[in-house]
Amino acid sequence: MTGAWKDRYDYDLPFMLKFENVAWYQDGIVKILDRRIYPVRTEFVECTHYREVAKAIKDMVTQSEGPYVAAAMGMVLAVYEAKEKSQDEIWKHACQAAYDLSHARPTTSAQMTGIVNRGLKVIEEALKSGRSSDALVDAVMKFAFDYINTNYQRYTKIGRSMAERIPETGTILTHCFPGTVVGTMLRACKEMHKDIKVFCAETRPYFQGSRLTASVAFDMGFDVTVISDNMPAYTLKSQDIDVFISASDVITQDGHVINKVGTFQIALAANHFGIPYYVTGTPDPIHKDISHIVIEQRDPELVTESMGMKLTKEGVKGYYP
């Protein structure tokens, strides 16, 4: 099936940003690259029910743009599960899947809802036109592919815009995993023949910066250095950082940027040293102001361990917003 898709915008991007290695539906299975352990191990979580996709999103098997892609592919799987049932049953199953997938993580539920609702619209129109079984699944798969490809096309423009703000031999600091934006930005830097250096804050407790962002930059041939999460302020000053960049989980209509915890303190330090901070994203019409944002509280035990190894004595508590 992959050979049918042309004009893909994941060209010249590294392994983990290729469509099939983010989240991909094929033959009744959604495969999701397990970013919790990549690049130490390259493993895929295989989901045979849409609820397994929702659990993978909740458990942070994938992050950054990954959950949104997984939700779109999860809608394909949901239709596959019900494809031989009546139209009413297919619609009911798809609606439940849309809700479960979009509410897997509270911080991003508004954006997720928009994605799955577009999938529901495709399903509704396909059912009205009499499509059933494999033709219905193909219609939803086309929606999912078009979603990810259109996003990458948009990220290509954003990445080039970001690259234009980096000096020819500049040094940048990133936080967490900006996802496809960092890939398209670095791709544009290569096309512009810019010789840049990348510093990545490790981003505990899942280490997205050291495992994911650093892997993408390294695989694309850039000079990459990882720092721990308590080093950004000193690094900004001592390593002549030109630009601090990050993605965003949400941007409110009144201008608040919500991103991985820790972004705030780096932004403050960058402001102190007069270093520009560029964030990618667009204001979300659903979130009028900061009061509409729910900050997710994740398992505190993850802070008391590192890559599965316990760091603290039993009884010592963790805090993980």
Please outline the helices and strands.
Layout: E1 23-26, E2 29-33, E3 44-47, H1 50-58, H2 66-82, H3 87-102, H4 109-128, H5 133-163, E4 171-174, H6 180-191, E5 197-201, H7 208-219, E6 223-227, H8 232-238, E7 243-246, E8 250-251, E9 257-258, H9 263-272, E10 277-279, E11 305-306, E12 309-310
Helix pairs in contact: 1-2, 1-3, 2-3, 2-4, 2-5, 3-4, 4-5, 5-6
List the strand order in the largest sheet: 6-5-4-7-10
How many individual helices? 9
Report the sheet-strand fraction. Answer: 5-15%
Largest sheet: 5 strands, parallel
What is the overall shape? globular
Low-confidence stretches: none
Q: Give the number of DSSP strands.
A: 12
Order of helices and strands: EEEHHHHHEHEHEHEEEHEEE
Mean pLDDT: 94
Plain-language structure description:
The chain is globular, with a radius of gyration of 20 Å. The longest helix has 31 residues, at 133-163. The strands form four sheets. The protein has a five-stranded parallel β-sheet with strand order 6-5-4-7-10, sandwiched between helices. A three-stranded antiparallel β-sheet has the order 1-2-3, covered by helices on one side. A two-stranded antiparallel sheet has the order 8-9. It has helices at 50-58, 66-82, 87-102, 109-128, 133-163, 180-191, 208-219, 232-238, 263-272; strands at 23-26, 29-33, 44-47, 171-174, 197-201, 223-227, 243-246, 250-251, 257-258, 277-279, 305-306, 309-310. By secondary structure, it is α/β, with parallel strands linked by helices. The model has no long low-confidence stretch (mean pLDDT 94). Helix 7 links the parallel strand 5 (197-201) and strand 6. 42% of the residues lie in helices and 13% in strands.
